[in-house]
Amino acid sequence: MEQPAPVSPAFIATDHNHDHCVSLALQTAEAICRERGQRLTTLRRKVLELVWANHRPVGAYGLLEMLRDESGQVAPATVYRALDFLQEQGLVHRLASLNAFIGCAFPGAAHTGQFLICTSCQELAELDDRQITEALRASADASGFTISHTTVEVLGLCPHCRKGRA
Amino acid sequence: MEQPAPVSPAFIATDHNHDHCVSLALQTAEAICRERGQRLTTLRRKVLELVWANHRPVGAYGLLEMLRDESGQVAPATVYRALDFLQEQGLVHRLASLNAFIGCAFPGAAHTGQFLICTSCQELAELDDRQITEALRASADASGFTISHTTVEVLGLCPHCRKGRA
DNA sequence: CTTGCTTTTGCAACAATATAACATAATACT
DNA sequence: AGTATTATGTTATATTGTTGCAAAAGCAAG
Q1: N or C: lower Cβ tally within 10 Å for chain A?
Q2: Is residue B4 part of a domain?
Q3: Buried b / exposed e along B29-46 (16+ C-beta atoms within 10 A)
Q4: Is residue B7 situated within a structural domain?
């Protein structure tokens, strides 16, 4: 599959139509799972929908709360298992520095996950920057190191919040 | 202060003299704290020593165990506070992807913390790679994003373990 | 379509990581 | 020495994530 345009571009539309990007993400997920013979069950779909609806990094226990609001009692393991599945399918990323989850902006594409995270408004941009990827690969190569997974999470201020503080 | 040689180079000496690098790290830490008018107390020094003695990422509760072996009952907060101090002074890094801590290889130098972590032997190399730093800065600039902190943690196989698996 | 197999979910307990709040002790300053 | 500041002790609790087993749902062969 070729690299598609990101589902959500970097720090552009703060007040865009969330419903649209949620349903687009769900459609894409359906297609990807169908193609791979994976089962996007009601629960998994629901969790993915909640992740996208928030449109910001959400903690597992946050999702748990939201699920409970809709479905009564739900146990942590339920959420974590759904998130595990979604991560395996590359539909959701875990942000190690926040212990939180976010919908993947490049579903179906091979990429490593690079994030700019605003510490003021929690808005996040996912990148797939060739320069960064290459720099990491080159540096690993130089040490004889074989990369299996990279965590790149950059904290700071997004353009909007930067202005607000100037 | 100019960038000094790293205390521990990348994946070179697997069976070097740990005692030496531990004491070197402690000496350096003493000097840095003295220079800054910060207090490297017995406890903080002990925690730093344990971090270095392990020479691999160690969890806070691992350190807690070791402290208890020497000093009887110790509470989590004690360790976390010491680690907080050591991080503030740039003597220790927290690895978000592992919930673990490691002695800083470039104490006293301004740097961002970039790590290659072997998932087989847990050996770790800290980098301060200009290419990576620049790529991150450039990408952030392009999005109008102001960086305050970066997390770069690369998991994979170190040269030794890669051979072992070939 | 039903029997048997696999995958998913429910459920309960628990493990691991981290913080808060307040009291006591040590250190530094004058 | 007396006072202010910083560090540590202590207890409790919050947050995040996992394990193990049983029930249910989906799937596939006959």
Answers
A1: C
A2: no
A3: beebbeeeeeebeebbbb
A4: no
